[in-house]
Amino acid sequence: MNAEPGEFLTLLTPDEVAALRAGGRPRRWERGDTVMAEGESADWVLLLTEGRVKVSSHTRAGTEVVLAVRGPGGLVGEMSAIDGSPRSATVTALEPVEGLVVQDFATFLGTHGRVAVLLMRLVTAKLRDSDRKRVEYGAYDATGRVATRLIELAERYGEQTSGGGLRVALPLSQDELAGWTGASREAVSKALRTLRDRGLIETGRRRVLIHDLDGLRRRAR
């Protein structure tokens, strides 16, 4: 299985991975498919092996708020599997996605105590990330928040180019990027234009080329 550094899968031993495989079954979703739906009750989790998903929720007004982007090696759906509550968010495939569906994940954790501790650490990290994003919404302008999300994508998915930049295959539309930054689509469009005008990035259809990552970090702060 492929995995991003630091994701759930990279923390497991070969025996633990084998146990997950034994209790799971492979599935595939196409781009735009709903993998998990907010409000549904289920005890299964998904271990991503290929492709990226967005985790999102909708406000009462119908606005989509993107909470996270997860990629290969990531685990989604673990909260409901642990406490039995309905799904707190919707998971949607941003591109063709493959993964391992593991039923009755709580039982697996009960027989693999080390994995349960690792999962607690990952859940804590997600909560800290949520707190950090709430601080960003109050402290940064829209351009700073867009720059921060682009940096996150570059650090996770960026590919070095011959010219010294970082190419990122952007899985999000401008509307989705707006939902991830807590800004309007118009504000995101203006922020991208500002970053382009400063020579920090170059944009294309579902891709971003970052020319100056350090400059982008300075603008994010």
Automatic annotation (TrEMBL):
SMART domains: cNMP (SM00100), HTH_CRP (SM00419). Residues 140-214 form the HTH crp-type domain. Residues 8-98 form the Cyclic nucleotide-binding domain. Keywords: DNA-binding, Transcription, Transcription regulation. Pfam families: cNMP_binding, HTH_Crp_2. Transmembrane segments: none annotated. The keyword Manganese does not apply. The keyword Transcription applies. InterPro entries: cNMP-bd_dom, cNMP-bd_dom_sf, Env_Response_Regulators, HTH_CRP, RmlC-like_jellyroll, WH-like_DNA-bd_sf, WH_DNA-bd_sf. This is Crp/Fnr family transcriptional regulator.
